[in-house]
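Hi support team,

I've been running sequence recovery on a batch of backbones for a student project. Most finish fine, but this one hangs at about 90% for roughly twenty minutes before it completes. I'm not sure whether the input is malformed or the queue is just slow. I've pasted the structure tokens below so you can try to reproduce it. Let me know if you need the job ID as well.

Thanks,
M.K.
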């Protein structure tokens, strides 16, 4: 019997009896091959109860009726198995695996593999055309890479591996604006980690370099610091990555609170330190009893950084005296509180601290490293001393104005000067016949002037026979409060100004 060339379908012979048998056999084979689908592949033994029309792809090492029929299509027709030898280009769909196979003339191959695996591509463009310079190019607005979960057979992790040929080569991520580079991160020219920035895509500045061996971080364009300020008592917790910190404390003002500075390693600081901010010393209350000395002011409180560093407050000023001079308190120092004024004797300065003004000296002493004392008033009442000047630390408050033996009111003394951005700033003195209250001392402001700027002293209130002025408050960061003005019997004296509260500034270095 002759057959067709490709499918081996039987021809009808001339004068053949039972032609319908041959014809039907050819139709059955065509039916088996058209839109070819098999229920399973790699089958090595015939099913025990096959169904008419079953189609299977025989695997290697088959037995029974399938022996020697590897890679052939077995179809169960008219109660028996027929076998079709595949030709190049045949396609078969495997129902059990939802898989499309292609016969290449030698074996069946996974026809869908090219859709699931892209191997050795020369160019790939997504939304754009890739080229030799950019063989992988994607033009899109968002993308997402997510880890294959443990439930899906993965690890739940996701890592991007970027590899370069050798240490002298570069592997990096480049960030561009309008196709001009602005930042780059990676291993650029060595095996240290670099962060670089550019304003024009041509000139680059190294911002961060992490040493591959030690892990140390260098900042070629300038090291970072973080400034933290504390105006109230609370716990300081170092920022993670801190190497050391400079701590600048200001004691509260009575005279003028002391600044104290120390540098501490991360190990010394530990997990945290308690910061206690000293309260400014209260000014003396108005005197309401005739022929009585004025009330003394209060000592400024201490500011501390745990047990590592303390800035002591300034001493209190003495109240105005009857027929004698009054005095100011001394400034604080990093090792001791400022001495209080007593009557006409100013609080004694020690260890470079400015002493309080006395009846003889009038003005408080100048102090360079620490707090300055408050001003004093002379025995005659004719001179009200200004608060002591301090360049890097807090200044003292001005004395309140007295009344002379001839019942003449006197102006208050100006507060000690501080310099803000190079400009002098002092609490104004109360003036008889004008604004009798003393002005507030200059206060520290974050972002204005140097960070080490301290508070200025408040000005003294002017005396008045019936309504004297109050002393000005000391500025923030330990400025001394000004004294209140004196009055004649029958009227209350002016209240003293409160000292400026303490403060803490921490400079963190990484």
């Amino acid at each position: 019997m002759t057959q067709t060339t490709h499918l081996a379908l039987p021809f009808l012979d001339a004068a053949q009896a039972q032609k319908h048998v041959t014809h039907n056999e050819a139709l059955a084979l065509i039916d088996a091959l058209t839109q070819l689908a098999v229920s399973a592949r790699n089958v090595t033994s015939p099913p025990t109860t096959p169904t008419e029309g079953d189609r299977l792809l025989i695997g290697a090492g088959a037995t029974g009726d399938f022996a020697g029929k590897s890679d052939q299509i077995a179809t169960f027709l008219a109660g028996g198995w027929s076998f079709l030898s595949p030709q190049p280009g045949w396609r078969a769909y495997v129902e059990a695996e939802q898989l499309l196979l292609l016969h290449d003339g030698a074996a069946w191959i996974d026809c869908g593999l090219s859709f699931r695996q892209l191997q050795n591509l020369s160019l790939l463009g997504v939304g754009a055309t890739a080229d030799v310079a950019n063989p992988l190019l994607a033009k899109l607005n968002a993308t997402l890479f997510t880890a294959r979960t443990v439930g899906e057979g993965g690890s739940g992790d996701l890592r991007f591996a970027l590899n370069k040929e050798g240490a002298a080569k570069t592997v990096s991520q480049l960030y561009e604006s309008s196709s001009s580079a602005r930042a780059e991160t990676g291993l650029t020219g060595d095996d240290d980690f670099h962060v670089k920035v550019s304003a024009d895509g041509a000139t680059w500045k190294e911002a961060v370099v992490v040493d591959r061996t030690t892990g140390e971080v260098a900042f070629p364009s300038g090291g970072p610091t973080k400034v933290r300020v504390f105006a109230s008592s609370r716990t300081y917790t170092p920022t993670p990555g801190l190497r050391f910190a400079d701590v600048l404390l200001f004691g509260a003002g009575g005279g003028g609170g002391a600044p104290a500075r120390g540098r501490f390693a991360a190990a010394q600081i530990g997990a945290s330190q308690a910061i206690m901010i000293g309260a400014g010393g209260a000014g003396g209350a108005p005197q309401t009893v005739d022929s009585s000395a004025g009330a003394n002011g209060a000592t400024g409180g201490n500011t501390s950084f745990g047990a590592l560093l303390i800035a002591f407050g300034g001493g209190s000023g003495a109240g105005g005296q009857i027929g004698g001079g009054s005095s100011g308190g001394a400034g604080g120092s990093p090792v001791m509180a400022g001495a209080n004024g007593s009557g006409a004797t100013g609080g004694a300065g020690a260890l470079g601290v400015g002493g309080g003004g006395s009846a003889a000296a009038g003005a408080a002493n100048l102090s360079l490293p620490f707090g300055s004392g408050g001003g004093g008033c002379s025995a005659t009442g004719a001179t009200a001393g200004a608060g002591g000047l301090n360049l890097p630390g807090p200044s003292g408050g001005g004395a309140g104005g007295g009344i002379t033996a001839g019942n003449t009111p006197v102006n208050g003394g100006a507060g000690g000067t501080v310099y803000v951005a190079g400009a002098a700033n002092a609490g104004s003195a109360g003036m008889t016949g004008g604004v009798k209250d003393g002005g507030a001392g200059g206060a520290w402001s974050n972002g204005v002037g140097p960070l080490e700027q301290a508070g200025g002293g408040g000005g003294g209130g002017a005396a008045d026979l019936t309504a004297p002025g109050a002393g000005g408050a000391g500025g923030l960061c330990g400025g001394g409060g000004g004294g209140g003005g004196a009055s004649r019997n029958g009227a209350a004296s002016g209240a003293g100004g409160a000292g400026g509260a303490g403060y803490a500034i921490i400079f963190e270095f990484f």
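--
Follow-up from support: It reproduced on our side and the slowdown came from queue contention, not your input. The chain has a mean pLDDT of 80. No action needed from you.
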